[in-house]
């Protein structure tokens, strides 16, 4: 074969490969997508994923199957996705634990939140509210702060577990207010809320997804909320900032990740369908019932949020010497 013919054949092969790649990307998705949730079925993260998967499948034209992979403080499901083939057929729900806490709570992780994932888009956030049992001798936030300052170490608080958003939110609160409140970790939201409602533990930072029903029922008293603005679900509850505690916004966020190396067209398509789902009236109604605030934006917006939260909570974890090892 002459040099000229060789070059022509090479150019044709490259053109064919490029055409096939573009065609494959244009056909995405052409098979079932697996959505990994690193928590058990039935929880808040699982419900959010299933709600979005049902909405997104319409635009994508493919089924999305939720695959629950709980364990090791989300690390089991997260490592599975980090090692998955970067073809757009394995994605995951990622939250504070995956992207902001665990890299500081564990001495070593088998993946890097910054390097081993493709950021697809933010889903939203659960604001956390400071609540007390109705028998607690404080009717408002000012009285609560005065009481815990006058009784250092004598007031306890519940969390859904060591290293959870609920735990770290109170540790941040303690740092910002110079108070000493004793931590009592539980294994999950249900037992923590049960003892809170029973008066066995007097206080807690409670996410609205888990606790909105008991807040509305009056089984706990809500003193402040950790969002930037008042929640439309609790318009009479002041924010922590309004109550005089600055730089103490506390929330649990959610977003969509894939393994590192996802092709740009796949990321763009998934981001578009995610944002469409987040604007779906059916989804918005369900999220409102969860007490969840949707966030829409670009993959870059989501990564910026995640890395900012990692830096913020890393400082809290180091200051309070918290570890899960």
From TrEMBL:
<dbReference type="InterPro" id="IPR042100">
    <property type="entry name" value="Bug_dom1"/>
</dbReference>
<keyword id="KW-0732">Signal</keyword>
<dbReference type="Pfam" id="PF03401">
    <property type="entry name" value="TctC"/>
</dbReference>
<dbReference type="InterPro" id="IPR005064">
    <property type="entry name" value="BUG"/>
</dbReference>
<protein>
    <submittedName>
        <fullName>Uncharacterized protein UPF0065</fullName>
    </submittedName>
</protein>
<feature type="signal peptide">
    <location>
        <begin position="1"/>
        <end position="24"/>
    </location>
</feature>
<comment type="similarity">
    <text>Belongs to the UPF0065 (bug) family.</text>
</comment>
């Amino acid at each position: 074969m002459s040099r000229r013919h060789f070059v022509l054949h090479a150019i044709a092969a490259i053109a064919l490969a490029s055409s096939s790649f573009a065609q494959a990307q244009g056909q995405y998705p052409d098979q079932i997508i697996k959505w990994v949730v690193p928590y058990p079925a039935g929880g808040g993260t699982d419900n959010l994923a299933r709600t979005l998967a049902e909405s997104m499948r319409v635009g994508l034209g493919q089924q999305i199957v939720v695959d629950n992979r709980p364990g090791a403080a989300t690390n089991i499901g997260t490592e599975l996705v980090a090692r998955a083939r970067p073809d757009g057929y394995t994605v995951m729900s990622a939250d504070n634990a995956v992207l902001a806490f665990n890299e500081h709570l564990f001495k070593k992780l088998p993946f890097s939140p910054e390097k081993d994932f493709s950021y697809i888009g933010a889903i939203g956030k659960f604001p956390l509210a400071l609540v007390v049992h109705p028998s607690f001798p404080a009717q408002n936030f000012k009285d609560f702060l005065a009481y815990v300052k006058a009784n250092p170490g004598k007031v306890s608080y519940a969390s859904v577990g060591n290293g959870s958003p609920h735990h770290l939110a109170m540790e941040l609160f303690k740092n910002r207010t110079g108070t000493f409140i004793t931590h009592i970790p539980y294994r999950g939201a249900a037992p923590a809320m049960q003892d809170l409602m029973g008066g066995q533990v007097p206080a807690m930072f409670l996410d609205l997804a888990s606790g909105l029903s008991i807040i509305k029922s009056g089984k706990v008293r809500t003193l402040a909320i950790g969002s930037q603005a008042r929640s439309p679900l609790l318009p009479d509850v002041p924010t922590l900032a309004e109550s005089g505690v600055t730089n103490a916004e506390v929330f649990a966020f959610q977003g969509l990740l894939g393994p590192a190396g996802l092709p740009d067209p796949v990321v763009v398509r998934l981001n578009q369908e995610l944002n469409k789902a987040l604007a779906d009236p059916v989804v918005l109604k369900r999220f409102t019932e969860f007490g969840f605030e949707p966030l829409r934006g670009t993959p870059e917006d989501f990564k910026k949020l995640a890395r900012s939260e990692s830096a913020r909570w890393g400082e809290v974890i180091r200051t309070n010497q918290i570890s899960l090892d």
